[in-house]
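Listing S7. Sequence submitted for prediction.
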Amino acid sequence: MTATLLRTAAELHTRARKGRRAVVMTMGALHEGHATLIRTARKAAGPDGEVVVTVFVNPLQFGAGEDLDRYPRTLDADLDLAGRSGADVVFAPAVDEVYPGGEPQVRITAGPMGARLEGASRPGHFDGVLTVVAKLLHLTRPDLALYGQKDAQQLALIRRMVRDLNFGVEIVGVPTVREEDGLALSSRNRYLSPAERRTALALSQALFAGRDRHAAQQALRARASAVPTTRARAEALSAIGESRAAADAHAVATTAGGPAALLATARLVLDEAARLEPPLALDYLALVDPSDFTGIGDDFTGEAVLAVAARVGATRLIDNITLTFGSFGDAA
């Protein structure tokens, strides 16, 4: 399938529309993670619908000293990958098409959630993200827009903006795509030297260690909760031949768990990576409520996001996974 390259919103608006229009917003340098988003959009739009991939390196979301100038521009390759993945259109506007007359004086503000984690590390970043997302939603006029869950805070803020400002568009999150060794796919991975890439694996390894610690904790809690808490507890334990094991499980489940233990397990992996050569420089590791990106407490129930950001050499990387609390079922 060949995607049509369009440069202006006017060209896009003159296209005949039959079914639903699905939009995938990118800054180019497309990889398999983007291809997954496009394929998901193709299924969601259906055979009569239309998939539009935007390619626009947004200057508003790059802070001082960040990599705007060296961010890869690979439009020909992007056009090819987008078409092979099911896109009908690649919309690649110039800066003055998106921001006629220069940088906009009126912008979207990300609010308190936009000042946490990524926002604290990159002040103003999410204001720039939400401003360009709002602009591109208006320019492309989709029925639904798809975003990767790797940028979990960005996805949460886009959902909040769409809800708070009554945008008539459905927002769809698509799971993170990883390489075989666990590293989350990112356009910035190409900046990593072989040695830096080995160090960068600590991000996903830390998340997986935290996930496994949480799963073990959930299993212990489930095991302990299955044992009576009355005076018959000891007899019941002995009857199933697991008195010591179950007692140990109960002790661990009630004294050594929760968010703090999970974070400590993940941090051990990151601390080890900080001693590698080249070292990993941790920005943050946090376990947060996805509704507002504040830290969760021991009594939290529902889905939480375990998020990490770090720098390896000159490259800053982020990653996250989702964990479920308050259930003795699957932990992730």
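Caption to Listing S7: primary sequence and predicted structure tokens for the chain studied. The chain has a mean pLDDT of 90. The longest strand covers residues 302-312.
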